[in-house]
Hints:
It is a single chain. 0% of the residues lie in helices and 50% in strands. The protein is mainly β. It has one domain: Rieske [2Fe-2S] iron-sulphur domain (Rieske Iron-sulfur Protein, 3-layer Sandwich). Strand 5 (55-57) and strand 6 (60-62) form a beta hairpin. It is globular. Bound molecules: FE2/S2 (inorganic) cluster. FE2/S2 (inorganic) cluster (FES) binds at residues 44, 46-47, 49, 63, 65-68, 81-82.
Amino acid sequence: MADFVKVATVDEIPEGTFKAFKMKHHQFIIAHITDGFFAVADECSHDAAPISEGELYGDEIVCPRHGARFDLTDGAVKSPPAITPIDTYEVKVVGRDVLVLLD
Length: 103
Ligand code: FES
């Protein structure tokens, strides 16, 4: 059963940054962009590179290996060579805590 799990406080992920997490059997990043906090899998859909080693550009994350870009709000591919979206996780902020829905 999926539950929201506290992974950080809002102060730990200032706007314009992201952090990587390993929890339960999930590896993901949480990015703090203009529209809020968003979580996506820490694995590029092109060739499984850890996107946590990439860079944030606005609301997109760039894969460090071949430069694919993904929209952090929905995991959509914004630039090739990836063609498949990356997984996303539901995030909510309660008070000062950032929680992610994990099964
Ligand atoms: S592994 Fe990410 S673009 Fe190739």
